[in-house]
């Protein structure tokens, strides 16, 4: 079962935190909640400005660079099974960027002049990948199943959400809230600092944790939830501890998928509603949803 929250402004902490706490309280009161490896907590991010609700090209590029650069650091705060999920693949898992160094990836992103092209390269999928074979693809295609899903921005000309798909399923409000704060604070600091990253420097989990925590303080995140965010990084389990064994120019091979994964991919491709974008358009352009026009969803 999939639950999709209303659209919230991140800075309105009392409103959305209370919403999640009340929702999970009712859910856990009346049901037994469990999480499997197929479950995830997906967070949709968008500039929430009624006058200019668009992602700028510079923000998209800076966020994309930060995603590629800090991928191993974000992996370190995830359960092992969310590091290899076919539904949250590495954004470098394609023919274009898989074997480039981080510096070369940065240069490639800098060469893209249009926002839709930046978005497209972040979700480009190889037909010979597990996902491509499961879906019977014969050429490169765009797909949502990446850690950070930019697909909504390919077709909607910079309007819409970027989706962080990697966090595991949440069974408590505290878990869900922590993942939301991580996604938002990472995105905000990434948009501000992504273009100043030095790709030849090795990414560091502690450095990222400090950046995200400082952003949480700046944004006014309540102290209780800042402590949970800090604990997330304190408990991080890096994939490779020996820097000599880590090659930032390579992406590990995509693992084979299960029959259940294959059925899930096909089901999503054939008819899963994009409820988050329906709510997005309902907020910014209510006339679109009022008349049932789903061509832009």
Biggest beta sheet summary: 3 strands, antiparallel
Give the termini distance in whole angstroms.
Answer: 21 Å
Spatial strand arrangement across the major sheet: 1-5-4
Rg (CA only) = 19 Å
What order do the SSEs take from the amino end to the carboxyl end, as H and E? HEHHHHEHEEHEHHHHHH
Q: Quick one: how many beta strands?
A: 5
What is the mean predicted local confidence, pLDDT? 85
Strand content: under 5%
Shape field: globular
What is the element layout, followed by pairings?
Layout: H1 13-30, E1 43-45, H2 57-69, H3 71-76, H4 102-110, H5 115-122, E2 124-125, H6 130-134, E3 141-142, E4 148-149, H7 151-155, E5 162-164, H8 173-193, H9 205-219, H10 223-234, H11 259-271, H12 275-284, H13 286-290
Helix pairs in contact: 1-8, 2-4, 2-5, 2-8, 8-9, 8-10, 9-10
Pfam families: Amidoligase_2 (PF12224)
Protein name: WGS project CABT00000000 data, contig 2.4
Structure characteristics:
297 residues, mainly alpha, 13 helices, disordered C terminus, three-stranded antiparallel β-sheet
Give a written overview of the molecule.
The strands form 2 sheets. Strands 1-5-4 form a 3-stranded antiparallel beta sheet. The chain has a two-stranded antiparallel ribbon with strand order 2-3. The longest helix has 21 residues, at 173-193. The model is unreliable at 241-250 and 286-297 (pLDDT under 50). It starts with 12 loop residues before the first helix and ends in a 7-residue tail after the last helix. The chain has one domain (13-271). The protein is built from 13 helices and 5 strands. The chain is mostly helical.
């Amino acid at each position: 079962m999939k639950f999709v929250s209303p659209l919230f402004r991140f800075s309105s902490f009392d409103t959305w935190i209370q919403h999640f706490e009340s929702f999970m309280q009712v859910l856990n009161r009346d049901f037994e909640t469990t999480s499997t490896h197929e479950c995830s907590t997906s967070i949709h991010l968008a500039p929430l400005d009624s006058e200019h609700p668009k992602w700028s090209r510079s923000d998209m590029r800076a966020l994309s660079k930060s995603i590629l650069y800090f991928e191993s650091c974000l992996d370190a705060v995830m359960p092992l099974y969310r590091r290899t999920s076919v539904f949250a693949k590495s954004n470098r898992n394609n023919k274009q960027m898989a074997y480039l160094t981080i510096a070369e990836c940065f240069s490639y992103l800098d060469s893209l002049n249009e926002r839709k092209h930046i978005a497209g390269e972040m979700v480009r999928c190889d037909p010979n990948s597990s996902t491509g074979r499961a879906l019977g693809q014969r050429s490169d295609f765009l797909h949502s199943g990446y850690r950070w899903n930019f697909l909504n921005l390919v077709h909607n000309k910079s309007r819409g959400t970027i989706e962080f798909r990697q966090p595991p399923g949440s069974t408590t409000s505290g878990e869900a809230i922590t993942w939301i704060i991580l996604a938002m604070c990472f995105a905000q600091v990434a948009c501000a600092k992504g273009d100043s990253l030095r790709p030849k420097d090795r990414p560091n989990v502690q450095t990222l944790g400090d950046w995200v925590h400082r952003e949480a303080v700046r944004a006014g995140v309540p102290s209780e939830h800042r402590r949970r965010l800090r604990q997330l990084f304190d408990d991080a389990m890096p994939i490779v501890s020996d820097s000599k064994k880590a090659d930032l120019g390579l992406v590990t091979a995509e693992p084979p998928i299960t029959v259940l994964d294959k059925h899930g991919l096909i089901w999503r491709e054939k008819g899963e509603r994009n409820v988050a974008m329906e709510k997005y358009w309902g907020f910014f352009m209510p006339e679109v949803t009022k008349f049932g026009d789903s061509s832009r969803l």
